[in-house]
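Me: Here is a favour to ask of a fellow structure person. Could you put it straight underneath, so I can go through it closely?

Assistant:
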Amino acid sequence: MGVSPVSTNHERLIYKRSRRKYYRARAFFYLLCFAIIIAGTYYLLHRPWIAFGRIVVEGGENITVEEIKRLDSIPEPVNLFNVSRSNLENVLRNDLRVEKVSTSYRWPNILRVDVTERKPALYVECSYNGFAKVGYNGCVLEVGKGIKDASAPFISGRKIGNVYNGDIVKDKEILGLVRFLGKLDKSITSEISEIAIDDSDKIKIYLLSGVPILLGTSEKLGEKVDTFVIICNELKTKKINAEYIDLTYSKPYVKLRQ
């Protein structure tokens, strides 16, 4: 009979220990290689010169992809591995033009940004010959030297002083007006050409048809929404030769042209 190399208990113990060390060393080597591959892949994918994915914006008229890149300092080419969704959402939530924002990923490599923009309720004159664009919550969305578009009616006969982006308008009549306008559909507000407030705080709304509607003060504007909508729809569907329509009191009064 031959002599086995592991014939004794001592030799068997040494053999098992050596095999155990070998397996541990091999497992450690494989684990190290795996970690290096993961770290290298992570490092490579996050390089700024790697182009991966694209950004799309849904629901925004003024907030574009280029605007988002500028606001969140996203360099070209776009690498979605370097774009933080939470940071992007925070940046947009701090933008006065944005009411709501959410982000999500779409297969295979698209970052979708859903934006609900604040709509301007009206323009009003402010200090230094400027004009303030005021949202439906009374917040000043933008201050500029002129009225850039016809997205909202202009208030004449009123000035709100020195205001900045993000300020809340304090004027009671204007706040009442923005709440009133916020209850109207776009189809109705698009018919308004101008709003006038006189020295006694009485409000007059001029329609594109040329017919002025007198609303009185802002005290009970909310109660006149339904009547105002009915009158506007009547003027669109019927030929009413009105000089003005008075909604100051509970019963509307139509002054016909002579």
Residues 190 and 258 are 28 Å apart (CA to CA). The radius of gyration is 34 Å. The chain is about 30% helix and 25% strand. The helical segments are 9-45, 65-71, 85-93, 172-182, 186-189, 225-237.
